[in-house]
From TrEMBL:
<keyword id="KW-0560">Oxidoreductase</keyword>
<dbReference type="InterPro" id="IPR000907">
    <property type="entry name" value="LipOase"/>
</dbReference>
<dbReference type="InterPro" id="IPR036226">
    <property type="entry name" value="LipOase_C_sf"/>
</dbReference>
<dbReference type="Pfam" id="PF00305">
    <property type="entry name" value="Lipoxygenase"/>
</dbReference>
<feature type="domain" description="Lipoxygenase">
    <location>
        <begin position="1"/>
        <end position="254"/>
    </location>
</feature>
<keyword id="KW-0223">Dioxygenase</keyword>
<keyword id="KW-0479">Metal-binding</keyword>
<protein>
    <recommendedName>
        <fullName>Lipoxygenase domain-containing protein</fullName>
    </recommendedName>
</protein>
<dbReference type="InterPro" id="IPR013819">
    <property type="entry name" value="LipOase_C"/>
</dbReference>
Length: 254
């Protein structure tokens, strides 16, 4: 993804997109901002000063475990942030929340819609590409009847059926799925500041749904509207159960 966006304080969301009509980026940046604002409100309520972040043994122990055990192979990398301030904690928590919710939803729940018809995304090839060390007979057949060669290359019916089933399972929401901005934790009702912050977060996600619907009918956005173009709904926060191609669960759920 490197090179698709550059930091720009004058641009919306603080980054300028190399491809302005990039549905994952445009919708994802709105979701990121909503998540970050919610996390900021939460962190600043419970950690009103940096000293409390540094002295919280349980918090520091959790972050040490994330780096040294959860990512032991990367524990000595120089890019790991150190939890010294509220801003450090906000960035870490927002990143984890985004990866486990919005990012995962965008790469997971659309798999059947894009790959269920296996010629779109065949997962295996039964023969080499026709230009890879072909015999004269194979090359002649390819030039005379490329469709025949293509069908030989595609997965078998049995392989394709297994693929469709797998993608269907990966892309389906369970009836008890819990989505971002859907239900607040019961304990937050006793914390007016936190409950109000969550309600603001919920409102931003409802607004995002409306923005996505509007973008998907804007014919100026060629990557998400127009004849033969699939609507981009993967980052719409709430979904019905089943195979919907939308919905952002609270965490990785497949």
């Amino acid at each position: 993804m490197e090179g698709l966006a550059v930091e720009d304080e004058t641009a919306e969301h603080g980054v300028r997109l190399t491809i302005p009509d990039y549905p994952f980026a445009t919708d994802g940046l709105m979701l990121w901002d909503a998540l970050k604002e919610w996390v900021t409100d939460y962190v600043n309520h419970y950690y009103p000063n940096a000293e409390q972040v540094k002295l919280d043994e349980e918090l520091q122990g959790w972050w040490s475990e994330v780096r040294n055990i959860g990512h032991g192979d990367k524990k000595n990398e120089p890019w790991w942030p150190v939890l010294k301030t509220q801003d450090d904690l906000i960035e870490v928590v927002t990143t984890i929340a985004w990866v486990a919710s919005g990012h995962h939803a965008a790469v997971n729940f659309g798999q059947y819609g894009y790959g269920g018809y296996f010629p779109n995304r065949p997962t295996t090839s039964r023969i080499k590409m026709p230009v890879e060390e072909p015999t004269e007979e194979e090359l002649k057949e390819f030039y005379e009847d490329p469709e025949k060669t293509m069908l030989k290359t595609f997965p078998s019916k049995k392989q394709a059926t297994k693929l469709m089933l797998t993608l269907d399972l990966l892309s389906t929401h369970s009836p008890d799925e819990e989505y971002l901005g859907e239900n607040a934790e019961a304990s937050w009702a006793h914390e007016p500041v936190i409950y109000a912050a969550y309600e603001r977060f919920k409102g931003k996600l409802q607004y995002l749904e409306g923005v996505i619907d509007e973008r998907n009918v804007d014919v100026a956005l060629k990557n998400r509207a127009g004849a033969g173009v699939v609507k981009y709904e993967l980052l719409k926060p709430i979904s019905e159960p089943g195979l919907t191609g939308m919905g952002v669960p609270n965490s990785v759920s497949i």
